[in-house]
Design a protein that fits this description.
The complex is a heterotetramer of chains A (about 775), B (about 500), C (about 140) and D (about 110). Chain A is an all-alpha fold. Chain A has 34 helices and two strands. Chain A is about 75% helix and about 0% strand. In chain C, α2 packs parallel to α5. Chain C starts with a helix and ends in a 7-residue tail after the last helix. Chain D is mostly helical and about 110 residues long. Chain D has a single domain, classed as Helix Hairpins (Orthogonal Bundle). The longest helix of chain D has about 30 residues. The chains are: A mainly alpha (about 775), B mainly alpha (about 500), C mainly alpha (about 140), D mainly alpha (about 110).
Amino acid sequence: MLPMLNLVILYFLFALSIFILPKAIKSQKGILIAFLQMAAFVWFVFKVPLVSANNSELLFLKWIPELGLNFEFLLDGLSLAFALLVTGVGVLVFLYAHSYMKSYDNTAKFFFFLLLFSGAMLGLVLSANLIQLFIFWELTTVLSFFLISFFNEKELARKAAFQSLVITFLGGLSLLAGIIVIGSAVDSYSINDWVAGADKIKSSSSYVPGLILILIGVFTKSAQFPFHFWLPGAMQAPAPVSAYLHSATMVKAGVFLLARLSPALGGTDEWTFIVPLFGVITMLVGSYFAITQTDLKAILAYTTINALGVLVLLLGIDTNLSIKAAVLFLFIHAFYKASLFMIAGFIEKKTGTREINELGGLIKSFPITSAIALLALLSMAGLPPMLGFLGKELIYEAKVQSPGFGSMIFIFGFISNVLMFAVSMKVLFKVFLGKAKKTYTVSRFKNTFFVIGPAILVLISLVIGIAPNLFGKWIIEPATNVIYASPVNVELALWHGFNQVLLLSIATVVLGSMLSYILIKYNRVEVLWQKFNTTVFPVNLPELFTKTIESFVAFSVSKTKILQHGYHRYYILSIIVFTAVLLWVQLFVTKGWQFEIPFTFKPFYISGLVFIIMLATLFSVITRSRIAAILSMGVTGYGMALIFLYYSAVDLAITQILSETLIVVMFMLILQRLPTFTKLSSKATKIRDLIVSIIFGTAMTLVTLKAINVNLSSPISEFFMQNSFQKAFGENVVNVILVDFRALDTLGEATVLVIAAVGVSVLLFSKKSKS
Amino acid sequence: MNIVALPLLIPFALAISLLLFRSPTIGRWVGPLGSFAIFIVSLYLFSNLQTNGILTLNMGGWDAPFGIVLVIDYLSALMLVVSSLILVVVSLFALRFLTDDIPLNRFYFFFFTLAMGMNGAFITGDVFNLYVWFEVMLISSFVLITMGKKKEQLEGGIKYLALNLIGSFLFLAGLGLLYGKTGTLNMAHLAEILRNDNQAVLMNTSGILFFVAFGIKAAIFPLYFWLPASYHTPNITITTLFAGLLTKVGVYTFIRFFTLFFVQDQPFWHNLLLITAGFTMVIGGMAAASYYETRRILSYHIISQIGYMIMGLGIFTPLAIAGAVFFTLHNMIAKTGAFVASGMIAKIKGTYQLKEIGGLYKDNPLLAVLFIIPAFALAGIPPLSGFFAKFMLIKAGFENGNYIITAVALLTGILTLYSMIKIWNEAFLKKQPDNQAGKVDVKLAWPDYLPLTILATASVLMGIFAASVFSYTMEAANQLIEPSHYINSVLKNKMP
Amino acid sequence: MNSIILQIASKYVRWLLVIFSVIILLRGHNAPGGGFIGGLLAGLSLAYKGFAFTPELLKTEMKVKPESFMGLGLMLIFISVWPGVFIKSAFMEGIWFTIPFPFTEGYKFGTPFLFDIGVFFTVIGVTVLFLFSLSNNKSWK
Amino acid sequence: MLSILVGVLYTAGVYMLLRRSILKFIIGIIFMSNATNLLVFISAGLVAGKPAFVNGATTNVSQLADPMPQALVLTAIVIGLGMAVFILALKYKYFEVTGTDDLDQLKQTDSQK
């Protein structure tokens, strides 16, 4: 099973090597990568027999097991289905990109990111550890950011890339939280453990919050309402990216996860309520807005939203029929949507526009392409003999038979299908058929790679549509089994009798044709409809998004200005207030004030000394003469020296005197060069500052008092006194502590002095004074 | 031979030699080579720790708790290794990016004293000694921040200095109270006394003083104001040096003190830590989002990320503390990387203003790659280092039931991403603005890329080898949560 | 502050102070004093001359730069760190030996003392450099 | 009594720190420094008139003053000296460059650009 890991690693290595390819090969890198994809695809094809026998392969590598983080690669029906899509469509997309990107610079970057993305996507669908899956998930998010912003000098592209990044990143965070929350219920992030412990998860209290968090992640990635709006924006990306990421792979990552988690989390009331609800809304929103678009890629984007809605809806209904339909539709949609995106890119390249009102009659200039497009559109519309028809039938069946609020789903599904049919027809008639507005000349050979991708996809779609059984047995059934977690029999047939569902299909076609006829015939209807939309739905989500971000930034700016106002004093004030408040709180909480205050005036000369110091301090505070302030500050210092002296600290007293002298001298040195005091603060400020100071000062006093009264252990200094003479040969214990017991402190202290001295000299000696 | 003291003595010797010999050529060699020597010693000590367990050295031969003891446990060793890597990088960075107004050998003198103070703080096992090293580090940083002597540097320096000095005083006051109450300064001895005494809750007042003192150094809310006021003023080399190291020393002491000493009234401390952590994250992140100058964005960003580290401490499970340690290590590397990148951008474009620059993605793809790695690492995007740190913290938070703070941490991730993408969009993706079209870009030579390359590689490697980093941080956390091992190693020769 | 009295007095007082500071340093281990106090005193005594005359004069007169003082001091400190680790077991471990001195038991000399001398020189250098720097202005008289 | 002095010194220190004049600010710093030193000194208990000098004959050491806080405060004083002189030099330099003594003028580094 190691090949699975190696395969993913190979993708990454290959991506890195793009930059060092020799020039001659470099220009063919698209084809080269297509071969790599092809090899991977074939490898997966060979795994089909294994999987269709309902077996699976698991590769387990320990990584950080304590965190529940291991490499678990799982190949079963579900992951194989997706892996085939990723690699299979990958082959065609890279061939297509090879031609498409020829006219741009820096294609190495493009192929690098696209291939990396391909590897990440493959890693994602093969992951059986949810954290590992999340890692790949985030990689796809980031890589899609780079790919969407490929035309980085266009502001729109940057905006769209940023938007999709933020939305999906937000969803990613939510997903991560959800995984962790649910993971803690079974103490594992392995999907197998989750499935095994499904009952435990569903009965735990973390189920609902975890489910919602995970669903948010799924919905952002798979562009579900109300997060769908990033997807049309992402059409700023080059066409291969749209074809690959935004139709076949990345947006399906959410669907994949939903399918993966379905056996572990699905089937509950919450699941069958929330998931279909958002699926239905998304489905309707997608088809409704698709119909009034005139940009070809925007139409495709909205129809993609519709399709994603359908997929989520089907997975949410959670019956064997609906899941079968979902798996089938997954392929159908990938086939026709990828080809349509490629064709859209082709058209834009050749005609210079994507506006469908400016196009028309392309069948005359590009007959082959148009034929392919025709088939793809038929599939999208759900007409026979395409695979799309099969899918639509099955979906109708699933909807009709869905439990719960089935009838509602059924009605909305019908509306949505009518709209989809109309959109397909509108595109078909406006772009490919009808009157040609312009003729384009094309050289035949250059287009090969442009056309080959869509052609193959459509062909597959056609072939499977006619003879679906093998495909159903080999691919659809194993995947369905995994999702449904019990065996499901998949029998597919193009024609399955004249029944209720067929009637529905006919009704869809009839209504859809009428709608598209009106739209094509009367342009004014479309314009009016657009106007109607803008008045009825005035909220433009992308704009809302931008506005939200902007107003948040504005909010941040204003708040930051308030906090970081620049007034130095208030910074100090806030720190002091914070400290004082915490201190008082603690003093109250620990009842530190209850013990006696040893308030004595003995010995009286010390009291006198203290009194003098206080007076000096006070004088220094209030005086308006600078020299007086400094000198009284000196008095405070000398007074303290006397206190030290009285309380048996001779060295300390001497040091205090000398350093105080030094400081006063320094002050005097620069004093005459500094301005005199001026009255700067108002009275109110002074009073406020005074109150704060007193609060802080009293807190410190109480703290000190407390300290004197608490003694938890006898001090270690007795050791010093006992050993100072015997072992360190010194009578002055203080000095012995300084130079021997705690010499390291003194070393640091000397260093501080040296740094300060050198620093002062650096500051004040200057060859060229800059200002 | 017990060489635990070498991380201290090497920078000390180097600083002395730079004081005595003042030729710039010597500085040019001594700087990077000396830093590299520290790095090697740190690595050696780390490997030694893995085989021999906690390393201790009684300075002066006086047994703990009487003399000063140097201790290297996992936390110290990890901090040492990563910080000395940062030293190497910054010493290389300085060679190319220091401007003429700062003499190279002077810079390296303060650089090494800073390193000495920082290493001392990491390895000392004595609270007063810690204070001394803090001061060594601080005064070095004071000098460094004002070295260019430009107006805004002096201004930033004054704010930086004033607020940090208050922190120092509170620290010292807390120390005095601690000694007054317990009669010892040795960390292990203190921990032993405080853990076995039910009166120890009375220590909370000194705890507050430490909280504020370290809070100022680590720049947490509401004590962080000095950081954004000053970090963007000095030469980018100096900012980078500070950004990677200084606040993290504060975080280190936070972790050390609040796991060893103040464990009696846990709900109070942990709530206090969590509340401040939440505000720190959000306010820092918001402020980072509101600027258009790379250094300011990144400065606020430091604050925001400090919140995560404090949050890990506040959750106080082994996983959370391991997460905090992991986050700190990752952040030192990635944050330094981001600052180095901003310095490179500024060297090319001549400004830090995002609105005046652009087009670097096209012109300098190498720089783009080197920038985006630390940027995404900071945003916590897997599989880079930041993801694992964040994952550990979030997992710990959810499992411990701290839902609110964890949600805040998650959402702050968006702010981080936003500010990183802003730099990316503006400096790299956007075209050079038209009004700046005439400007000529400075070409960078290969040594200019070297520091950032080292850091980006380190960040990637930290992600790839997350498993081993994780086990180290887990070791560190276990040692911190259950400090009896620490206490016993230090006090092995304690006299009766 | 260019007073004649100060200038004349400085000649004698200064040297007295320096000698006094050395004594303080030497007896520091057993009586109040030591490297810090001695260094500060010596530094102030040098500064005293600066006050009496001008710092510029002192600067030119002083043959040794204050930075060299600091360097020397730190160097001594650094040297005193090492014997302990080689002879005994730990950095900074005190190594003592007795210098025979007539009529007494002998004078005990050890690395902690060397350390203290280092501090002494360092503090002298620092003090002098402080004063130099802060008085580094032409308007200073 | 001395603890009240600590409080007074802190009060004065903080009050001075909150003034706008640079000089007052430095005086505030020095008061804070003194207050802290005093706090450390007295919090370990006070013994009058019995400095910690020992020789071979000294036996009853517990009556002597605790030398540890003295050593600590000594270190702190010296460090405080270094800090004070540096901040003095810094403020002086700032004044030289800008010509103002008003701390409220220090707004430039926080302003948005």
